[in-house]
Specification:
- The protein has 134 residues and is mainly α.
- 54% of the residues lie in helices and 6% in strands.
- It has helices at 2-11, 30-45, 48-54, 84-107, 118-133, and strands at 60-63, 69-72.
- Helix 2 packs antiparallel against helix 4 (84-107) and helix 4 packs antiparallel against helix 5 (118-133).
- The model has no long low-confidence stretch (mean pLDDT 87).
């Protein structure tokens, strides 16, 4: 295998490029990178690729025993299908749970006073809500 690589690199030469840094391009700040990661996480977990390919309706309707049609946000009896609203709700709950863990981590920082437990309560509520409703 190594002889194959040696022959390949005898035939090909690496180009001698002198690339310069673009003067107008700056490194983004940490909060900008974090915002891009959060937005992409939100879009991926809501199933945007599935929604673009399949084009499901935003919500569905279900007929009850009296003949009335009622709106339904969650697609029942299909494991591989979803409504757009279902993807939005589940992605929001995923995001709320991860935000709760971030708040719990920040509430234990050394610069936060120990008597201020409001952040701890908010983080705990976010995690519990996303766990039980997600």
């Amino acid at each position: 295998m190594e002889t194959l690589y040696r022959v390949l690199f005898l035939l090909l030469k690496c180009p001698n490029l002198k690339l310069k840094k673009l003067p107008r391009v700056h490194m983004p700040s940490a909060i900008t990178v974090y915002a891009l990661v959060v937005v992409s996480y939100f879009l991926i977990t809501r199933g945007i690729i599935y929604n673009v390919i399949v084009e499901p309706p935003s919500i569905g309707c279900m007929t009850d025993k009296h003949g009335h049609e009622r709106p339904v946000a969650f697609l029942a009896y299909r494991v591989n299908g979803q409504y757009i609203m279902e993807g939005l709700v589940s992605s929001f709950l995923f995001r709320m749970g991860s935000l709760g863990f971030i708040i719990l981590d920040q509430s234990n920082a050394p610069n936060i006073p120990k008597c201020s437990r409001f952040l701890l309560f908010i983080g705990f509520v976010c995690v519990l809500l996303s766990f039980f409703y997600g």
